User: What shape does this take?
Amino acid sequence: MRAFFPPRSPMPMTLLRSLLSLALAAVTTPLLADTVWLKNGDKLTGSIELFDSGKLLLKTDYAGTITLDAGKIATLESERELLIKQGDFVGERAKSLRAAGQGQVELVNGEAPKVVELSSISQMLPPKPLVQDLAWTGNLSVSADYKQAENDIKDYDIDLDTRMRHGAWRHGIAVEYDHETKDDERKTDRVELGYDLDRFITRQFFWQGQLKYSHDRIEDLRTQRTVGSGPGYQFWDDALGAFSMTGLLNRNDYVFADGSSEHFNSAAMEWDYKRYLYGKNLELYSQGELGAPFVDEIDYIIDTEAGLRYKLNSWAALTLKAEWDKVSAEHGDTNERRYVIGLGVGW
Assistant: This one.
C-alpha cells in the first residue's frame, strides 16, 4: 500500500513573505520626527532637545542642532512624550503634541487634551528615567606639558566641571588636579574640590550653599576648607549661555605643613559666565571669586579663570584656559598666572 502524504501548506512561504515585507517597511519607514512651523511659513523637522527661556533647541540631520526663537514659532507637533512646564518648577507629561492655532500647541493626555499658549511654556524636554526634568551639562579636559632641555619638566592638569538642574535645585561639582615635576622632583601636587547647591526661590533668585576643599602636598599651606552661604541672581540661563552672581559669607580653615592652623571669616562675590558663539561651536567662559577676609593681615583675594572651548566634533573640544590667583596681604603680595591648553569632552 502506498503511503499518503498530505500536500505541504503554502502558509510558511506566505508568512515568510509577510515578515520580509514588514522588515523592509520598518527599515525604509523614517523615524518619527518632531515638526516646527514658523510664523513666516517655513517648516522644520527634527528632534526637540530642549525648550527653555524662550529658545528651542531642534536637533536635525541636515544642519545639526539649531536654536529657534520661541517668538518666531507658530506651532509644534510631536509624537514623543515630553515634559511640559508652565510654571517655574512644576510640570506635566504630555503623551504627544498636536499643532494648534497661531502661537499655540495642543497637549495630548488621553481623554483630557488641552490647548496652551507657547508663551506660557517655560520649559519643554523629553522626560528622564529617574528625575524627569534633569538637565545635565559638563566638561572634562586633560592637558599635559613635557619639556626636555636643561631641566626636564612634566606637567599634568585634569579639570572636571559639571552641573545638574532639576526642579528648584541645581548642583555644581568642580574637580581639579595639578601635578608638576622638574627633574623627577615634585614641584606641584594639588587637588581642589568644590560643591555648590542652589535652591531657586524664583526663576532668577536663588540661595546657595557652598563647600570647597583643597590639599597641596608641596606648599606650606597644605589644606584649605571653606564653607559658605548666600543669595544669588541668575541673569539668564538659556541655549546660548548663562550668567549668574552670588554673594557669600564664608568660614575658612587653613592648615599648614608644620601642623599650625588659622580660622577666619570672609565675604566673597562670585560670578559664572558662559556664552556660545558660531552655532555653539565656540564657548567663551569666565568664573571666579573676589574675596575680602575679615582679618587685618589680608586685604583681598582674587581667584579667577577664563577660557575658550572650540568643538572639534559633537563631543570633543579644544580648551584654552588662563588662571589668575592674587592675594594682597600686609606682609607681601602673591600674584600667579597660568595658561593651559588641553583636550576635553563635553555633554
